[in-house]
Amino acid sequence: IAPTGSGKTLVAVYVALRLLKAEPQAKVAFLASTTNLVQQQYEEFRSVLPPPWHNSVCPPVHGGADSRNRMPFAQALKGHSIIVMSTQILLNALKREPDSFNGLGVSAFRLIIFDECHNCSNDHPSKGVMVHYMRRKKILESSVEEQQKGSKLPQILGLTASPGTGKASRLEAAVEHLIKLCANLDCPYPVTVQRCIKSLNEVTSNPDCQIHYAPGDPTKVDVFINMLNRLMNMGEGLLRDYCDSLEQWQSEGLPVSSVPPRGTPAYLNYCTNVKYNMHNITDQTVCKNILACSRYLGCCNEAQMIAQCFRAVDALRYLETELRTEDEMAKPPASEAEERLRRHLDDVMQQLIRFCGTKEASSSPPLDKLVEILREQFTGQPNSRAIVFVKQKFYARVLADFVDECAELRLKATYVTGATSGESTGGTNAAEQRARLEDFRRGLYKVIACTSVTEEGLDIPDCNLVVRYCHVTNEVSMVQTKGRGRARNSAYHVIVAETQEWLKDKERINQERDAMMSQAVRTVAAMSARELEIQMLEYQVRMMNTDEDNQEAGGGDVNQANNNRGQVLDSDHDILCSKCFTQLSHSTRLRLIGDIHRVVVDVEMFASGGRLRGQAGGEAKRVPGVEVIGVDLVCDSCGFKVAKVVSYGRLFFPLLTVEAVLFRRSITMETERPARKWKATESFLRPVARLSQEDKNLWRRHVPRLPEHYRPYWN
């Protein structure tokens, strides 16, 4: 346990090197939570380890469709001494590839290092890995045969700057939380820096928190919100009417009469739940109407949230981007509800545009305070780097655009959000994250707006300004975000809007809990190993009892768990556009390329031009196994983006986007729940066949080259 920027990764490298010198055949696993951290820590190991050990580090092993390295786990384990990988990859391998470990499980490693090990106290993959560790420990303690073989448990090394308090309000509860974390990691030796703490504090950055309260005139925001409320009143009324006509809707547990307050994350969740609860409704006309209502309400709610923290003109731009693109307006409405909402939106937009032409709509006290902080920082230190943390992914895009366009600042800005987010809602995939963060390191961007995806572990040596913009979470996040300011004399600011005054108190509570956390660490570190082991044992017994209950219930096996939920793979599925429910193809036409990419081998869908049309899709790029050529495919009925064109073996295929489609059972016409990842479709889709030579020959006969109607968009 040591401060951010104090060299915990170097400690891990030293421990791994010492082990490999003593046991050259040993295996070491270094686990990190995100793709960016896996890549960063791999580069750290490679640069610090002396020869010949630096060649024993396996190329980074992590998930993501655009991962540069897709080395099979068994190959990585067999051919390398040190594997830097995502925690989820190891957990998946322990569950699904037991043969890779030669029956040893986690004992195949002599050392497992958990980066940001405080996550092991939560429902996190690191805790799942430790459950496998505890199973192995139980086997070794009870099996004479295993003991005679000389099997050993791996050593566990956890690294963190912020073990947290578990929301404790008393020191005793904070100590209990830390003991539970030690139990989850089977670690009776919590270590902190003691002898050299003074010199350590001199070289690490721990800036004081400066809280800024940004008052304003709420009536200015209310004018904009009241205009939007007229459209939302209509949307909620239509939604109630359509839902009241469905008897099964109430049984889904989502009564539309219980609507959360507008302009809140709870309302966003409500709109998402409305969409996800349509999967059992067989009336496709009603489905289209409900989908249109939930989409318009969700976008209007996001615009209200933007107006509260930014400017009315930013909220107006967001609405135009989401609901009034040129492509969308050129298409006829997909449903009666969309037609009525679009017509009403046209009327409301005229009023919003007039209001946004006023001076009031172009001002925002929180943004003014941000400009003041950035101007002061960059005037004196023009080579500074600033990270601004926001709560919502669409906030990040809005803030980056504002800084980029601010004539007073003249700073280039970008944004990074979660890799699972869709591009239309401000998401950035793993490749974009790496590219933007690297450009930020190099100084091509001076300001970067981020969600929590960059809170932990990210090392930007020149970053000397961290700002939390209208967003405060817990004491762990506070420590982690402050730690992104790695340069000497870094500054840490929290900006609180008038509507969020309670955040000031929350940040002060975080500071108190941070002090309590340090005291809890000292208390636990002062315990004897025997005393700590006794207290840890109770939590470990609970962990194993819970694990045994899950295994008995089928939770230990993914397929069995699906069967227990009543999921049966007894039907093929129609593939529908998730916006207008137009049928695009059929699940029997799905094929796998390289165990990652699902393409649709459907000549009529791709080549005839009746179901899809092309549009420019950004730069061409290589991803593992295929090449994205820069052509997006949109539904011809509604203009919604559903796929990309990829090149594979000199042939062109449509690569389906799972978030953009729905799957409807061909027999019963029931629509499955929307899936955000292909993994989620395994509970209802039959296994997808690999692209065979026969498939390629058929495709080559019918689609020998890229169809003419897509070529104008090909880079």
TrEMBL record:
EC number(s) per entry: 3.6.4.13
Cellular component, GO, one term: cytoplasm
Record-linked PROSITE patterns: HELICASE_ATP_BIND_1 (PS51192), HELICASE_CTER (PS51194), RLR_CTR (PS51789)
Catalytic activity from the UniProt record: ATP + H2O = ADP + phosphate + H(+)
Compartmental location: Cytoplasm
Name of the featured protein: RNA helicase
Domain RLR CTR: 563-695
Helicase ATP-binding domain sequence ranges: 1-181
The Helicase C-terminal domain, residue ranges: 366-525
GO molecular function annotation: ATP binding; hydrolase activity; metal ion binding; RNA binding; RNA helicase activity
Organism: Macrostomum lignano
Pfam families, A to Z: DEAD, Helicase_C, RIG-I_C, RIG-I_C-RD
One BP term from GO: innate immune response
InterPro entries: DEAD/DEAH_box_helicase_dom, Helicase_ATP-bd, Helicase_C-like, P-loop_NTPase, RIG-I-like_C, RLR_C_sf, RLR_CTR, RLR_Helicase
Similarity section: Belongs to the helicase family. RLR subfamily.
